[in-house]
Amino acid sequence: MQQFGVIGLSVMGKNLALNVRNHGFSVSGFSIDKPEVDAFAKYEDDKLKPCYTWEEFVNSLEKPRKILIQIMAGNPVDQTLQKLLPLLDKGDILIDGGNSNFHDTTRRFEEMEKHGIHFIGMGVSGGEEGALNGPALMPGGDEEAYNGVAPILEAIAAKTPEGRPCVSYIGPSSSGHYVKMVHNGIEYAIMQEFSEVYDILRKIAGKSNDEMSDIFAKWNNGRVHAYLTEITTNVLKQKDDLTPDHIIDHIMNIASYKGTGNWMLEDGVALGAPISVVAEAVIARFMSKATTREGKSVVWNGDVPEDLIDNLEKSLQLTQAVAYAQGFQQLTMAAKAYDWKLRYPSIAQNWEAGCIIRSSMLKDIEKAYADDKELDVLFQDPYFKELMENNIHALREVVSLAVKAGIPTPTLSASLNYLESIFNPSLPANLIQGQRDYFGAHTYLRNDREGTFHTEWYEEK
Ligand code: 6PG
Fold first, then answer.
1. I need a labelling partner for 108 at 20 to 30 A (CA). Which of 34, 239, 458, 459 fits?
2. How far is the CA of 184 from the centre of ligand 1 (A)?
3. Rounded CA gap, 432 and 272, in Å?
C-alpha cells in the first residue's frame, strides 16, 4: 500500500509527487488526463505508482488515506471532491494544494467535515522548482489531521538556513489558503516595488540592463537579500533569442495576473486593513493594461543625485518591509475577525525559504513576533522602527525625485504614505468627520470627552 497520493500530475503535482518519493515515501499519482499519467509512469518504481482510474488510485492507498489534490483552483476541485467522496472512508485526509479562494476552502472544509473527511487547505509556494526540491507549505484545517501528514510535509518542504522546515500548522478552517493569499498580495507588492526602482534606475540614473543587473546583484549581497532580487538580476541580464538585444526590452509591459493578490485586497477592504501598497500593486497591473500609451516616455535632463543608488537600495529595503508589514497587519485583523489563532513567527518561518517572497528579512520578522508578541504594526518592533528611522529619508528623496521627473511610483509612494501615517497622532480625519456630520448628521467622537456628538452647524449665508 502507498503512503501518499497525488491527484493532478501537471508540473506542480508531478514534481510534488517526485519530491515525496525522493524523501523515501511511497506515492501514487492519478490524473483525469491520461497523457499526464503516461508521463508520470516514466518515473515508476517500487515507491512510485501511476494510476489510471479513481478506484485504482484510492484503493492503492493505506488508511487513513492521505491525498494531495494539485489541480486548477475553482470548480475542478469541487468536481474532484464529488468523485472522491463515495470512494473514501471516514478519517481520510484530503489536502487541496492549489491557489484556492479561502471562501471556497471554508465551504469545502465544512462540507467534508460532515462526511467525516479531514480537509486541509494548503498554500504551496515556490513554483515548479520549489515543488520538486522544497516548497514553502501553508496548511490549515484541523490540527489532528495536520499531525497525520506532518512527517511527509516536513520532509518535502524547503528548509531555512538553520535547517528548519518551511511548513507548520497555520490554523483552523481556511487559514492556510488565507495565508497563501496574503503571501501573494505581498508578492505583487514587492514585485511592483522592484519595477518602480528599475524604472528610476533606467530613466533617471540612465543605467543599462547589464549595469542594473549588477546593481541588483550587489543589493542581493547587501540590504535586499531576497529571491526576487536574485531573479531580477537574472531577468535583466538575459539576452534575447530573436534579436541581439536584452529580452527585457522586448517583453510587452502588460502585467498579467491570476488574481490571488486581488483577493487579498478584496478581503482587506472587507476588514478595513490599511494595505495601501498591495492595493497600488494590484491597480498597477490593471494600469499596465489600461494605459493608452499615447504619451511620451520620460527623458530626465536634470542632475542625478550622487546618493541615488544608495537611496534606491535603502528604499527597496524599507518598502519591502512595508509590504510584509501590511501582510502581517491584515493577518492580525483576519485572525480577530475569523477567530483564528495564527502563529506569526511560524508564518514568517514558513516564508524564510522555498517561497517567492523569501528573503533574509523574514528572519527579523520571525524575531519581531517571537514569544507570541502582539504587534498591531510590524514597525512597533525596535528593529523595524530603527530601519524606518534610518531609511525613510532615502525613500522621501527617491519619491520626490520621481515626482519631479514625472515617473509614477504607486507602491513606493504608498509605502512612504503608510509610514508617514501609521504612527501619526494628527491625521486630518477630523475634517472628514465634521463634513459627515454637517451633511448627514452622522455624528462624531470628541478627543476631549466620552460619547457621541452632533453639532447644529451654522450655514454661511
Ligand atoms: C507562488 C506563486 C504562485 C502564483 C504565481 C502567479 O507562491 O509560487 O505565488 O502561486 O501562481 O506567482 O501569480 P499571478 O499569475 O497572479 O501573478
1. 34
2. 6
3. 17
Domain 180-422 belongs in CATH node 1.10.1040.10? yes
- Does 258 contact ligand 1 (Cβ within 6 A)? yes
How many Å apart are CA 359 and CA 141, to the nearest integer?
A: 27
* 257 Cβ neighbours under 8 A, 6+ residues apart: 188, 282, 285
The dotted CATH code for 4-173 is 3.40.50.720
pLDDT in tens, the chain (461 residues): 999 999 999 999 999 999 999 999 999 999 999 999 999 999 999 999 999 999 999 999 999 999 999 999 999 999 999 999 999 999 999 999 999 999 999 999 999 999 999 999 999 999 999 999 999 999 999 999 999 999 999 999 999 999 999 999 999 999 999 999 999 999 999 999 999 999 999 999 999 999 999 999 999 999 999 999 999 999 999 999 999 999 999 999 999 999 999 999 999 999 999 999 999 999 999 999 999 999 999 999 999 999 999 999 999 999 999 999 999 999 999 999 999 999 999 999 999 999 999 999 999 999 999 987 889 999 999 999 999 999 999 999 999 999 999 999 999 999 999 999 999 999 999 999 999 999 999 999 999 999 999 999 997 76
The reply to whether ligand 1 has any atom less than 6 angstroms from the CB of 356 is: yes
**Catalytic status, residue 456:** no
183-209 CB burial, b ≥16 within 10 A, e <16: bbbbbbbbbbbbbbbbbbbbbbbebeb
Q: Which atom of ligand 1 is nearest to the CA of 130?
A: 8
Task: Spot the catalytic one: 14, 49, 66, 180.
Answer: 180
Nearest CA to ligand 1 atom 8: 125
Write down the CATH superfamily of domain 430-461: 6-Phosphogluconate Dehydrogenase, domain 3 (1.20.5.320)
**Cell 498554500 sits on residue:** 123
Active-site residue 397, yes or no?
no
Dihedrals φ, ψ of 246, to 5°?
Answer: -80, 145
